[in-house]
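quick one: S-adenosyl-L-homocysteine bound model?
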Amino acid sequence: MKISVLTIFPEMVESLGDWGVLSRAVDQKIVDLKIVNIRDFTRDKHRMTDDYPFGGGTGLVMKADPILDALDSVRGNKRDCHIVLTSPSGEIFNNEKAIELSEYSHVVFVCGRYKGVDERVMEIIDEELSIGDFVLSGGELAAMVMIDALSRFVPGVVGDMDSVMSDSFAKGFLDHPHYTRPREVRNKRVPEVIVSGDHERVDLFRRKESILKTAIRRPDLFLKAEFTLSDKKAVLELLRERSHDVE
Ligand code: SAH
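yep, here:
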């Protein structure tokens, strides 16, 4: 998969390809990460990427032409890429959107700065995406967050896709708690069932924890979740435990 990022701060985004699973994916050419400096597409001698807003007011606006030219350069003759503008006005990015973006052969992120980009860039933007209801000083961190999340769904980026699909949201629930060695930390022991060696009981315990956590912390997710047979068995077990409590 190809991912391009248009920015005036390329060094900031380049670090993405230096660490963790994404760096391995870049080395193995599973992800082709291309960082494009918008300033290389300016035509004036001061290489300006921003200017004063028409109509007055505070702040600077990113000029349309350098961004449009940079977009033309990454698209080339191919028009099969999906262009995302990072923006607080966009739809809020989530796991489903990460999966959807991971299925394109080429996704391009445009990073705004200052007050944002000249509105006329919109004509070639496929969608605007936000990473939450707050304002960042630039789109770079937002693009980096989205790239990290979407690339986990590109086959081969994370060695084990089952692991990705068992993380929060992938199947509609929050993840269950995890434990590692040693068995006892500051007088807190790992729940006995986890070290019982009985895989069926371990699975049931994890499903129950996951379902309970989701219901309590994220009722919005819980109401939307689809229950598999093993989820239903876990709910039954929870109800059984509850009825013992009442007795
Ligand atoms: N004037 C704009 C804010 C511009 S912030 C407004 O009030 O909506 C500068 C740039 O940072 C934006 O163009 C965008 O690229 C990026 N940005 C800021 N907050 C963001 C968010 N929550 N999600 C994604 N990108 C964001």
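Residues 86-89, 111-113, 115-117, 130-132, 134-136, 138-139, 142 surround S-adenosyl-L-homocysteine (CB under 6 Å).
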